[in-house]
Amino acid sequence: MEDLQSLKESIIIYLDRSGGLNKLIKACKSQQMEAVYRFSFDVNPTDVVELDARLGDCILHDPLKATSLFQSVCFLSIKALSLIEHTITENQVNVVLKPTHMPPFPRYVLDLSEFPRGYGPMRPLEMVGLVIAMTRVSKYTQGARFLCTEEKCPSSRGFHHIRVHAPGATESATIRSDFICFLCSSPLREDVKSRVLGDKQLVELVHTRALDVLGIHDPSSLRFQSVTLFLRGKSYVRVADLTMSLFLQHTDPCLISDNFQALLAASACSPWRFSAIIANSFGSAVLPPGLYSTLKLVLLLSLVQTEEANPGAHNHLDVLALTSDTLIIDRYHRSNMHFFYN
Asked: Which of 66, 97, 105, 148 is deepest in the core (most CB within 10 A)?
């Protein structure tokens, strides 16, 4: 008990030094009345280890316990500082810890060429690879509220049964119809109005050595097996940046085949023809349908046309997109504005 209290004190000190408490206060001010309150913190393992080695070891090797400790600290802080006007319970607080980096040691890096077989301890690992395919952004359940069907049971009201998504869990672990009340063992029913949704995206990752297939080398029986990753929250934005940086890296012309060089020379009359041919030849097999490719191209043209360094940027290229799915269109426009201002 004393060890847990000491770890919670270290968490408060770290949140105060890293600005996490200020982030918590600002997040509470913008929160509306919900069944689940989600708070995300960027955790620097190096700073945590320097502050408290036991807390750092807990974050790196027992993240579920560390998340539970941060959840308790956030709940006590909200209650002590009266950050939320109405009364909430501890199980309504959902905390997500995002390590800024991992220690530079082999045991903290997951090598795709030596993918582990079997089940090991659940802890954060660093993974570096090449994104070869991705799905469109979809929704998943971050948290849900369940009520007891027995009217006389205290769990038929309030927030006694709150289920939140855990890392590695499927959707059925959060939303299911066979949950029972822990007080009276009666069936539970979901309060659909209190469901909290988030964004997720699936990507396929392969080892970076897969880029060697574009070069000139002797044929071999080497095969690259891809790994499917589930990205949740704002991680899909990082994937887009990663994909762009991978294809913008400098490549030695000597390693490019003669067919590619001939194609580049034949399409040199247009700045878009070579990219369009390559994208159509290799990208159509890995990209899901309905990704608004025409809209993306128009947005890129709009960026070029409105560039400040372009002396002929007097006539702006206006874009009007008509669709029933306004969420995806809004994300594309926001991403386009991000590149414009940066």
From this structure: 148
